[in-house]
Amino acid sequence: MLKLNGVSKRFGARSVLNSVSLELAPGEYVAIVGESGVGKSTLLNIIAGLEAPDSGEVLFEQKNMNSLSDDARTLLRRDSFGFVFQAFHVLPHLTVQQNVGLPLLLRAFKDKDIEAKAKHAIASVGLAGRENSMPRELSGGELQRVAIARALVGEPKLVLADEPTGNLDQENARQVLALLREQVKGHAAAGILVTHSEAAAATCDRRYRLTGAGLTPL
User: Fold this and answer.
1) E-strand spans in 133-217?
2) Which residue in 157, 172, 193 sits closest to 80, CA to CA?
């Protein structure tokens, strides 16, 4: 599904990514471990087509991300990718159901389908009955569950999770990591978790360490 061939990226004189290669099949869930500033988020941005590598290529379902137009990359992200971030990015003025259904609204799903799919996704992350709650009424762990439901409501083929437990306490982190794995596997998606936490990485099928020298298996 996803193949990275020798991806490198520099910012000025600083080399952030050095010849990173990776293959990911449907159903696989892998972790990329690294310290802050090593380039984990940059790598996810390149995979998603938000940034271009200086060299190398990213192939998603045999499509070269660099060869696609900006519009084509935007549509690919909308239709095939799901994102979970450390800071949740749940919109404060929308209810839980509206937040979760937003990706489907952007894809012009019918209202009744948005409602049904959003409710199902909310229930799948353990928040049934909270559809009409506002984000300010939720805990950090609950907000991250909303973010996971939103990322997966459109049944993406690839889920990218960037330090999804960075703002959570240990118990909420454990629950969210288990839920994220369960949801990725349950949707038969491929998933990449980037984290500085060895404990978080241990929930994945394969683990890699990202350093200035590249990507090495653990």
Assistant:
1) 158-162, 190-195, 206-211, 214-217
2) 157
63: Cβ contacts below 8 Å, ≥ 6 apart: 76
CB count within 10 Å of CB 91 equals 12
Q: pLDDT tens digits for 167-212?
A: 888 888 888 899 889 988 988 899 999 999 898 999 999 999 999 8
**What is the fold of 2-217?**
Rossmann fold (3.40.50)
Side-chain-facing half-sphere of 108: CA atoms under 13 Å: 1
Interval 43-80: pLDDT, tens: 999 999 999 999 999 999 999 998 999 999 999 999 99
CA 184 – CA 200 distance, rounded (Å): 15
**What is the spatial distance between Cα 203 and Cα 170, in angstroms, rounded to a whole number?**
14
Q: How many CB atoms lie within 10 A of CB 55?
A: 13
The pairing of beta strand 81-85 with beta strand 158-162: parallel
Evaluate whether 46 touches 192 at the Cβ level (below 8 Å). no
Give SS3 for 59: strand
Residue 106 is which amino acid?
L
Kindly list the distances between the CA atom of residue 134 and the CA atoms of 88, 103, 145, in Å, as whole numbers in the listed order: 14, 18, 14
> 3-state class of 134 per DSSP?
coil
What value, to the nearest 5°, has the Cα angle with vertex 37 and ends 34 and 38? 45
Alpha carbon distance 24, 211 (integer Å)? 19
Distance between CA 167 and CA 198 in Å, rounded? 16
Calpha distance 141→146 (Å, rounded):
9
